[in-house]
Amino acid sequence: MCYSSPNFQRLMYILPNKEKNTYDAIVVGSGVSGGWSAKELTERGLKVLVLERGRMIEHVKDYHTALMNPWEFPHGGQVPLEEMKNYPIHQRTGFTITESTKHHFAKDIDFPYVEEKRFDWIRSWQVGGKSITWGRVSLRLSDMDLEANAKEGIGVDWPIRYKDLAPWYAHAEKFAGIAGNRDGIPHLPDGVYQPPIPMTCVEEHFGKELKAKFPNRHVIHSRTANLTQPTPEQLALGRAKCQLRDMCMRGCPFGAYFSSQSATFPAARKTGNLTVRPHSIVNSIIYDEKKGKATGVRVIDENTHEWTEFYAKVIFLNASALGSTYILMNSTSNRFPNGLGNDSGALGHYLMDHHFGIGARGKHDGYNDKYYLGRRPNAIYIPRYRNIGSDKRDYLRGFGYEGGSSKDRGESQEEFGADFKTQITQPLGEWNLDIMGFAETLPDYKNHVRLSKDQKDKWGQPQMIMSAEFGENERKMRIDMKNDAAEMLEASGFKHIETYDYEPGFGLSIHEMGTARMGRDPKTSVLNAHNQVWGCSNVFVTDGACMTSSSNVNPSLTYMALSARAADFTVKELKKGNL
Q: How far apart (Å, rounded) are the C-alpha atoms in residues 144 and 148?
C-alpha cells in the first residue's frame, strides 16, 4: 500500500493491525523525560508504548567500554581522524567523541541539519537517550526563576509557580537519588538528598574564604544524580552506590547514576505495562479533525524505511526539545496548517540554551600533604548571586558556577621499580581549582528553528534549520562571569590565575529548550499549565521544549518533575472522561 502525505510522494506503508498497534499511551522518546513519563503512566495502570528513533541499549550488557582499561583501547582513547569526519558537530564539544563514548552519540553525517547560524546539536539517538551521558547536576527552579518573565516584561509568564512543582521535585529526587546538602539558599530550593560527595580540602578552603569575603556567594556541594546511600527501592531495581570512577558517560554497570536504563525503565517494566520499540522515527501526529484530538502517530522504520501507525488515547512528546518541536511542526492538518498546536505562531521560536565555557582557574600552594580518594562525578557549585536583592547589574538574570579541584601529578615519573610504585602513590604537585559559569539566556522570538522546504534527510523528511545566537544581555553577563571567577580565586589565596572564554556556540551546553513553551494564553504559547498542547488536549510535551524561560540552573530535574506531574494529571483526566 502506498501512503500520501504533505511531505512525501510515494512511500512504502505497512497497513497496521489497529488493535495490535493500539495502546493507552504513546511516549515518544526514551531519555530523561521519556523514561519518567513511561514510569509514571505505567505505574498508574496504562499500557504504554515508548517509541525511540535510535537503537536498543540494554542496561549493563551494552556498556561494552565501561570496564575497559586505558591500554585496551586501540588508539589510546582517541578516535582516528578519518572516523572523526563522521562527527563534525559533536567534535565541537571536545569530550563526547572518544573511543569509550562515541557509540552513545549520533553520527552527524547521517542526520544533517541546516545551520543558518551556528548551532551545536548534540544527539544521543538510542534507548535511554542522553540519560546515559548527561552531567547529572540536579537543581530546582525557584519562584525567582518562574516569576522573572512577568516581573521584567520578558517573553510570557510561566503558568505555574514553585508550589506547583515542589512535591514533584521531591518525588523525582527520592526515586532518582540525588546526592547533595540542604544549604538553605532561598533561590536554590533544598530537596530530598542522599549524603553529598565530600569536598576536597582545597574546595572547603575556597568555601570558607569566599564566605568571609563575599557573604552572599556560597560554595556548596554539587547536587548530583549519583547514589551515595541507596534506598531499598533503588537496591531492588539493581542499583548500587557510586564507585567514584568518573567514567559515567560510558554507561554505569553499577546503576549508580540515574538513567532510563538504571531507574525508570526497570520500574516501568515491573508493572508489565511497558513496550519499548527502537528504530522507530516518529514523523508526525495523526490528528482527527472531527474529534479534535490526536489518535496516534506515523512512524518510519529507521532501517527499512517502512511506514506504520500506532494509536493511543494520549501522546507524550519527550523526543528532546528540538525533536518534539520537529514532530509538532511536521504534524499539519486543516485545523493546524502551521503545525499541531501552533495557533500562536510561537512553535519553534524562543529557543534558549545556557551560555557557558567561561571562567577562571588557579593554583594553591597549600595542603601539599593532602590528597583525595576516587574521581568524583561532580564537585562544587556556586549558586547565582547577581541581580538578587540590592545587587543590580546592567543585564537581566544571572549565572552560577560549576567547578572542582584536582592535584597535579606531572607528565612523567623519574623513578623505576619499587621506587616508581611508591612515587605514583604520593600526592604530588600543586592543587588546581577551576570554576566555569553557566548562565541564563533570555527568550527571544528571533532565536528559532523551522523546517526546510527543500532539504531532506535519508527518510525523505524535512531537515531542520537552526537560527539562533546569544544577544547583548548574554554578552554583558559574560564580562562578570569571567571577572568574578578570577576575583573569587584571587581573594581565596589562589595564584597563577588564568581566565578563559571558549565562546561556545548555541546548543553546546546541551540544554536547548523553549521552542514549544508553556503559557497562560493560547495566543502566545503552545502549552498550558499542565503541558497540554493548546487545541489538542491529549498531546503533552514535558521535555525541554516546554520551558518558558531557561533560568541558569541545569534543567533535567525540572523535566522529571514536569513529566511526573503531567502523567498524574493525565490519568486523572482519563478517569474523568476528559481525554
A: 6
The contacts of residue 458 (CB under 8 Å, 6+ apart) are: 110
- Tens digits of residue pLDDT in 168-211: 999 999 999 999 999 999 999 999 999 999 999 999 999 999 99
Backbone phi, then psi, for 488, in 5-degree steps?
Answer: -70, -40
- How many CB atoms sit inside 10 A of residue 139's CB? 25
Please work out, in degrees rounded to the nearest 5, the angle formed at the alpha carbon of residue 139 by the alpha carbons of 136 and 143: 160
* Grid cell digits, residue 51: 517509541
Band (pLDDT 50/70/90 cuts) for residue 4 is very low
CB 396 within 8 A of CB 441: no
Mean pLDDT of the chain: 95
Question: What local confidence, expressed as pLDDT, does residue 7 receive?
Answer: 45
Nearest to 485 by CA among 206, 212, 204, 215: 206
Distance between CA atoms of residues 219 and 401, nearest Å: 9
DSSP string, 12-74: EB----TTTTEEEEEEE--SHHHHHHHHHHHHTT--EEEE-SSB---TTTT-TTTT--GGGST
Contacts 24+ apart (CB under 8 A), 104-107: 104/132, 104/133, 104/249, 104/251, 105/133, 106/54
What is the maximum span of the chain, computed from C-alpha positions, in angstroms? 81
**And the C-alpha cell for 544?**
525541554
Grid cell digits, residue 370: 593532602
Q: State the amino acid at position 198 in one-letter form.
A: P
Measured CA to CA, the distance from residue 177 to residue 565 in angstroms comes to 18
Q: How far apart are CA 541 and CA 328, in angstroms?
A: 10
**Rounded-to-integer distance, Cα 243 and Cα 552, Å:** 29
Q: Is the pLDDT of residue 462 over 60?
A: yes
Determine the Cα–Cα distance for residues 251 and 247; give it in Å rounded to an integer. Answer: 8
Residue 162: is it exposed, middle or buried by C-beta count within 10 angstroms (0-12/13-18/19+)? middle
Place of cell 550488557: 61
Q: Assess if CATH 3.30.365.10 describes domain 16-68+117-179+225-236+259-352+510-578.
A: no
Given a contact cutoff of 8 angstroms between Cβ atoms, the answer to whether 360 and 500 are in contact is yes
321-380 per-position pLDDT tens digit: 999 999 999 999 999 999 999 999 999 999 999 999 999 999 999 998 887 777 899 999
Coil, helix or strand for 189?
A: coil
The rounded distance, in Å, linking the Cα atoms of 367 and 405 is: 12
pLDDT > 50? residue 69: yes
**Of 560, 538, 112, 150, nearest in space to 315 by CA:** 538
Instruction: Supply the pLDDT for residue 371.
Output: 79
Among 347, 342, 176, CA closest to 259: 176
Q: Are 262 and 268 in contact (CB under 8 A)?
A: no
In whole angstroms, give the CA distance from residue 556 to residue 544.
8
Task: Tell me the pLDDT tens digit for each residue of 445-455.
Answer: 999 999 999 99
The pTM score is: 0.95
Q: Would you state the pLDDT for residue 414?
A: 65
Distance CA 276, CA 467 (A): 33
Query: Which residue type does 107 have?
Result: K
Nearest in space to 565 (alpha carbons), one of 128, 163, 147, 167: 167
What confidence score (pLDDT) does residue 410 get?
54
Q: Looking at the DSSP assignment, which residues form a beta bridge with residue 352? A: 513
- According to the model, what pLDDT value does residue 408 have? 72
What pLDDT is stored for residue 421 in this prediction?
Answer: 73
